[in-house]
User: Which sequence fits this backbone?
């Protein structure tokens, strides 16, 4: 029986090993989050490895998005990125070691023969698998070597016993070796295949814990047997449940997943994304909102969930809103500056504190930085962009005399929130109105919409000159 070694006290080393064959989405980055967090929680090392052996589908653009996404989220690797295509000489060296040890053999079965074999097996309701035709055994006569066919190299999988490992998510997993056929570990051109390269990488990089999606679980017994053939103990495995989209399908580009960098562009905070993603398969009691530091302090492999997690954008927006509310105002203002520049306000100064005050006033209403930037832009615009429905409802002929009276009174008001509030009260009393009857049209005329935080705070930040100008318009 082949078993996995128990966790040793050596330094924790984890890895994230994406294939650059498409943009990286939240399901992918969740698979990076946990090994990164585990390494940080245990004072270990987190390694980034780019598995780019699929030459037809791998692209530099996809690599760039992986690096950009991880940089944005602050998930900086301690080592790497390493690229598998740059390690081919090493893989071939280890392959020769296995050949010399008699663990690998050439297989000349053609693709057509293999397809025909599988069809016969499926017709007989058998599991389709390689039948060992070219596997050398004592006393066995192999078929004559055909001309003109370059063989693949197959790994001689043990035929007796079982592969057993204690998965940190799935618990004890046992697979009979009789269920595993002999894996192709090198193509006809000599290029090593994925399952072999992964094992060599994990050995060379001294990986102690492999934390990855459960779509890899079927590869694990094969990889463990290759570890054993190379005389190495396999790492601890944790296979994470799938992340589903809102329709219950596996999160993927085909099913509407967005690139991680798109969330950055839409105004999500990196710490909010870490918080939200952490909860897609792990928990710390009932804590829903927590900081990056708390997450790294709390994280372990013992509280990983066994059920598929479902992405919920509404919940993500709520989490992001909580982090925006808790964020330092001056820091938030710094995040808004480039978003204002993208809206045509390139000369917004931070040092005079106005933007920080605007952010402080509106951040409780915003789910994203983009929404907050939209509010901030109102205060730097030459004129308000007025919501026509609000205008028709609130800026009536009946209220215009009161607006004019307020404008006249504000012209003589010292420009502070307290004095603006006092002026409002005086005008309201003289006009026989309640606050909403005057505040609503004033908001519409000055910032374009009827609903904002306290109107005196808004007018103070907008500035006396603009307020008087806007109240005289339309």
Assistant:
């Amino acid at each position: 029986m082949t078993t996995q070694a128990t966790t040793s006290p050596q330094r924790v080393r984890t890895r994230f090993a994406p294939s650059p064959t498409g943009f990286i989405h939240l399901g992918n980055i969740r698979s990076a989050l946990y090994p990164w967090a585990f390494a940080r929680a245990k004072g270990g090392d987190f390694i980034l490895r780019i598995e780019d052996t699929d030459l037809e589908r791998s692209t530099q653009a996809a690599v760039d998005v992986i690096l950009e996404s991880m940089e944005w989220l602050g998930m900086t690797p301690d080592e790497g990125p390493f690229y598998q295509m740059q390690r081919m000489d090493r893989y071939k060296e280890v392959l020769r070691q296995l050949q010399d040890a008699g663990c690998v053999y050439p297989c000349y079965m053609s693709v057509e023969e293999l397809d025909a074999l599988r069809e016969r097996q499926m017709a007989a309701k058998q599991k389709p698998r390689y039948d060992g035709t070219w596997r050398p055994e004592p006393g066995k006569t192999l078929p004559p070597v055909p001309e003109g066919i370059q063989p693949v190299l197959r790994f001689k999988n043990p035929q007796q016993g079982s592969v057993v490992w204690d998965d940190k998510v799935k618990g004890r997993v046992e697979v009979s070796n009789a269920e595993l056929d002999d894996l192709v570990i090198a193509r006809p051109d000599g290029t090593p295949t994925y399952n072999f390269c992964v094992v060599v990488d994990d050995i060379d990089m001294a990986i102690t814990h492999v934390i990855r999606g459960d779509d890899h679980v079927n590869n694990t017994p094969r990889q463990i047997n290759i570890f054993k053939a190379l005389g190495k103990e396999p790492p601890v495995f944790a296979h994470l449940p799938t992340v589903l989209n809102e329709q219950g399908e596996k999160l993927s580009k085909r099913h509407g997943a967005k690139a991680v960098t798109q969330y950055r562009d839409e105004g999500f905070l990196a710490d909010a994304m870490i918080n939200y993603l952490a909860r897609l398969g792990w928990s710390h009691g009932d804590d829903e909102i927590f900081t990056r530091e708390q997450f790294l302090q709390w994280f372990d492999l013992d509280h990983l969930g066994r059920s598929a997690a479902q992405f919920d954008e509404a919940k993500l927006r709520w989490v992001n809103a909580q982090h925006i509310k808790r964020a330092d105002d001056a820091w938030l203002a710094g995040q808004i500056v480039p978003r204002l520049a993208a809206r045509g306000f390139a000369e917004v100064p931070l040092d005079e504190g106005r933007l920080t005050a605007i952010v402080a006033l509106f951040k409780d209403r915003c789910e994203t930085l983009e929404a907050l930037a939209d509010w901030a832009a109102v205060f730097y615009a030459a004129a308000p962009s007025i919501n026509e429905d609000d205008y028709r409802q609130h800026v009536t002929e009946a209220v215009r005399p009161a607006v004019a009276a307020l404008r006249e009174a504000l012209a003589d008001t010292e420009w502070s929130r307290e004095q603006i509030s006092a002026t409002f009260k005086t005008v309201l009393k003289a006009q026989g109105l309640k606050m909403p009857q005057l505040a609503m049209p004033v908001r519409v005329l000055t910032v374009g919409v009827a609903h904002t935080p306290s109107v005196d705070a808004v007018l103070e930040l907008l500035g006396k000159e603009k307020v008087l100008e806007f109240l005289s318009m339309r």
